[in-house]
Fold:
Amino acid sequence: GESVGLHLPTLSVQEGDNSIINCAYSNSASDYFIWYKQESGKGPQFIIDIRSNMDKRQGQRVTVLLNKTVKHLSLQIAATQPGDSAVYFCAENIKWTNAGKSTFGDGTTLTVKP
Amino acid sequence: DADVTQTPRNRITKTGKRIMLECSQTKGHDRMYWYRQDPGLGLQLIYYSFDVKDINKGEISDGYSVSRQAQAKFSLSLESAIPNQTALYFCATSDRTSGRTTDTQYFGPGTRLTVL
Structure:
């Protein structure tokens, strides 16, 4: 089955289930979005990204969906494994500014139960 | 990511002391960043640098200063540490090559700083 979270700080799923982590972004001018995974004691690591001219992008076991109308981003993890337990951050970026910096969400802690 | 290193990894200091956190990268990236992370929260940008001659304040620069000694090195200083600067500090790099639109950041392992 699937576990769907609203924008909650924590999400607990059973091993083997699919996980969906949600993120609401604030700036309608944002045109590039990134999901990061932060394991305990480590820095965030890139998972997958998506540009605003797309609404879906797939990676290995992960899919990112973008709904620009409601400024919502989601990360779907298929067949969740114990190694997926981590904090997941979404980040938004604006291509045509020279800010060159991302704005990070507060993160969602995913716990995978064996 | 071993391409981005931070020293020290852990530091305990006292109020009023000057502290320097160092970051080095071998990725050849032009952009470097310092973030602060408090327990259960996201990342807050302290300072960022697009190249050696370009330093910019982030969201929470008060109480901090930085130095970009070379393209590969970016240090963060707390001139007079205070207890509410106790946090996890991350350095990150990115490379916005002309014409590209991505700005993925690569993070170091973090420095855990405790100010007593």
Remarks:
- The mean pLDDT of chain B is 90.
- The radius of gyration of chain B is 14 Å.
- The longest strand of chain B covers residues 43-51.
- Chain B touches chain A through 26 residues (CB under 8 Å).
